[in-house]
User: Fold this.
Amino acid sequence: MNIGSYYKLKHFIPWTRRNIYKVALLSLLPTILYGVCDVTWIAIPWSIVALVGVGAAFIAGFRNTQTYNRLWEARQIWGAIVNDSRAWGMMAKDFVTAAGTPTVSEELKVIHRRLVYRHIAWLTALRHQLRKPQVWENQNKSYFKEYKNYYKVPEWESSIEKDMAPYLSQEDLNYVLTKKNRATQLLSLQSADLKNLRKQNLIEAFPYVDLESVLKDFFAHQGKCERIKNFPYPRQFASINIYFIWILALLVPFALVEPLSGLGVYGVWLTIPVSIIIGWIFTSLDQVGESSENPFEGGANDIPMASLSRTIEIDLREMLEETNLPPAVQSENNILM
Assistant:
């Protein structure tokens, strides 16, 4: 997530420069044919370009709206995870108690710590799973690879085993690592632990139901994240967006050569910069939409899962009265992951 006021042109122009090169090449040929070779019949009416432009603008606007909705929904889900995680920490600490005991024993503190730390491990497993590349994502795109030089994705810098190890017992860690969906299994372990605590009368009946309900909410949040991760923006809409915009970029210079040639001897050469500006606007709309449609792919516009998880960890460990807390995740070149 970019936390700056906006993307500066010194970053945005290089990020979109390949589109600029392509549009420049597309505008060069008709300009030379019309202005140098005197092939005037290639000029086309603006009304044709306007029709294509309306279609391209409509589909580009539609795509950007839908991809923003995917991004915003992902942020809302993680906002709910933050809220429910704080509730989990509070409830685990206050509801797991020994009846008639005025103080919290060391044994209860161990249980509280286990429930909280296992939840932090769930956050870790979830974000690692959401960072796994999918074939439709943009990790192989040139602009994605270049911009990756500005920041690091924590989940790609370390293994899930190493990141979960501080929060789980060796038994739990070994068990979870044998499973495909580690996050699901961690929630299952939480439920089994609550069941055992209920049998030991360390949780009253109603608080037990409330704690299980929070686990159910975590399953729902995880499922929503997995839906966004595993179901791409429909490929048919992505395809027509590309086709319409590049057809428009191809036709624009053919419509500009004739009116611009009337501005003077060298007026026809204005076709190239004007076509570049128009083409850059539409191709940049397409690229921005493309870079926003997968909010967990490791891009600069992603949901800052590592930062949110660290915030949750700090809050929960403070509830346990711990003082040796990890620092908040810092942005790198205004990119917070």
Observations:
- Residues 82 and 308 are 7 Å apart (CA to CA).
- The mean pLDDT is 90.
- The two ends are 6 Å apart (CA to CA).
